[in-house]
Known about the structure:
By secondary structure, the protein is of the alpha/beta class.
Amino acid sequence: MVAVREIETDTYDYVVCGGGTAGCVIAGRLAENLNATVLILEAGQNNVDLENVHMPGSWSNNFDSVTDWNIVTEPMPGVDDRRVKCSRGRFLGGCSGVNGTLCIRGIKQDYDDWEMQGWSGDEMFKYMAKAETFHGKDRFHASDKDHGYSGPLHTEPHELAPISELVKQSLIDQGLLWHEDMFTTGETPQGCGNATRTVHQGLRSTAADFITKGYRGDNITIKTDVTVNNVVLSDTAEGLQASGVSFTLKSGEIGAVKARKEVIVSAGAYCSPAILLRSGIGAKSELEKLGIPCNVDLPGVGQNLMDHVLAFVFYETEKEGLTNDHLAYHGDGLASSYKLWKEQKTGVLSTFPFGTFAYARLDQRLKDDPLWVGSPRRDGRDPMDLTPRQPNLEFWNTELYGGPKQFVDFPINKKHAFAMCTLLFNARSRGTVSLKSAEPMENPIVDHNYLADPLDLLVLSEGCRYANEIVMNGKGTKDIIKGSWPPELTHHSYTTREQWVPYVKQQATTCYHAAGTCKMGKADDPSAVLDEKLRVRGVKGLRVADVSIMPLLNSGHTQMPAYGIGEKAADLIKADA
């Protein structure tokens, strides 16, 4: 039997469980009060020596290794019973060190739709800006008032490759007008623009920067290679209280620490509900099956799992110099690119290879479809429950061949390829996160239930058809397409939505935007886990703060909302202190 031992200082004011995006923000902001002691527990290693984190173009080398949680979904009928790999960063900084670096905040209406006090679109956009220090460029027409200029997160515009300039022309030609900084303002549901990135001077900026570098205070203790087992709960005169945390060290030893004020769970959409469940907080029936005593019967824990489902469509061009494939796949291109980054922090590896982005609505394209027309809707909203102020889809292009790791037909021998990506917003399908066992070192069971709802399949298939039309008919790209990549795909000849359905079911994958599994909600919502102050129902001194708290996903990417949630949570905790 392994003995329980307490680490050097066994009591802190705040214990943060998870050193990912939101957790690092919270720890850093709480430590601004020099009288407060903060402990952050991270299951992975420190990122200081992880070159593949700091080099933006090398993100995928963090996957399928010890720096990845290596979570794989259950088979899902909506995508031909496939399992989908849902990689997550397992090191200090978490997914901020493996994501696409994209600052796509969504639409302000997305957050208004939460209908939670203190979480409006205007408020969330201010918190997202608070985290940021924006570095503009001469050719980028920024909306200066919407950016932040004093946060630890450094951002800058992306320099578009030639293929992205051509895709931009095609998007505009096909009716998606240019609004350069639209992904910062949150007010344009249809159009295209240039998404800023969490990259500065050739280095990725991550959430770990909130508690390292110049922001590391003596009152912050960082413990890495520490997996949280459960929150320790105590009976008090005022009810159940979070009094500490039990954890497992890399050596296998069990440790424990005490929290004087609060425990904050910030382990993400997969691991935050798992920690609550192991703490006896969740559906009583589920906990009893695993032999875990139920402390608080909260059936919403692990429910409401959401994601943005994504489909890549590849095109081949014979024209040299449009894509960046020659810098990665041809001859000694990759070696030269790596040398350039090592010596000067420039070149293709100093960026993330996504180009021009766009939002689109499908009202007119689906107005005659029986499923779309016949589906119920609320006043002023479409069947996906979106207002005209919110997009149904996001498009973007890659600047070379690449994407999820299943795409391995690299264009060697001087071939050139790029993808158009289509991302579905506000999917109606919902999944679950549950425990396989009470063993904390075992990953939870994840079932995203992708495309289970027919409307999700309809909208994503039509979106791929729309993206294909943009490439094949738009003036920037219509004359450069040789075919599809791999060559056996014939997207250039697809014309009907029905032709796209099998492809979507076979290829749809995650955009790594899992959220919603510990959602906040109003007092009369039986599925809500948290109140508007992120406090776990039925437990004092315990909050959850990461993207798992989101009642609905934003029309964008989850990186900036994670920063905003961290900033907001820190203010809530400070106010209660």
